[in-house]
Amino acid sequence: AVVSTQSTGYAVQRGVALHMLQLDVYDQHVDPDISFCKTLFSENIPMYISNLHDYGWLKSSTSSPDIKLLDKENTNDWMIKYLNTTEIKEFSSPCSNVFRAESVFTENFGKDMVASVDNLGGSFTWKPKHYERPGYDLSTSSFSDSLKDLITNLTLSHIPQLYPGYTPKGELIDSWIIEVEGKKKLRRDTNLAHEAAYHVLIPLNHPQDREVGGGYRFSRLNCTVTDHKAGDMFVFPGFITHHKYDLPQTEGIHLYLEMSFDAPF
């Protein structure tokens, strides 16, 4: 009838709550939690203590993005809002050894990541204004470890199937939000920043118009990907075989999250 969700929060059945309105629940001379439990015991009202989310959980009512809430205490709430699936069932291959799982993340993930990027606690690579910088280092952000755990949970079991003979370690080397802005020269080749065995890339916004260009080109494969969508997940090897660069676009801003895993040697 009554579930204690935290030391300061209780989930109470409506009928019990109405009955409690007629009782003197709290004794001002006793600790409030003890007084509350004593009253329930005297009225033969069962009470359960749980640290699970089965009965719901407390959440801020503010409208700020929940990206910053990615930690062990908020994982379930975060996943409901930002993941379309917790288990990837199918990959396509737009280029050789480049794999894509469609719509793994919700559009809200990209929107809130972009909206929150100036307050995530990471570091900039150029200027502090969002529209002026080419990249944002997430490896120093407060939720870097939690995001890494989430991505590895989604991908680690698939890597040996995608790349037979390779056993992934899931060690994060680098993590960036990269900005590609139209009408400006590209200022960073992400795959040359750190050597890695494989990369995971997640577009954070849709191309506004296919006519403006943009996309990803794997130069050694002579292969391009231009039909990316926000929330897709790409997995591809390191730059030794899969040197990637961002295709120029004439206008607009495209942002994506790229994480690099495992030293290649």
Structural commentary:
With 265 residues, this protein is α+β, with helices and mostly antiparallel strands. It has 7 helices and 14 strands. The protein has helices at residues 14-20, 32-42, 75-82, 107-116, 144-155, 159-162, 239-242; strands at 2-6, 9-12, 47-49, 92-95, 98-101, 123-124, 135-137, 172-181, 198-203, 216-218, 223-225, 233-237, 244-246, 253-261. A hairpin with a 4-residue loop joins strand 10 and strand 11 (223-225). The longest helix is centred in the middle third of the chain and has 12 residues, at 144-155. It is elongated and about 75 Å long. The protein starts with a strand and ends with a strand.
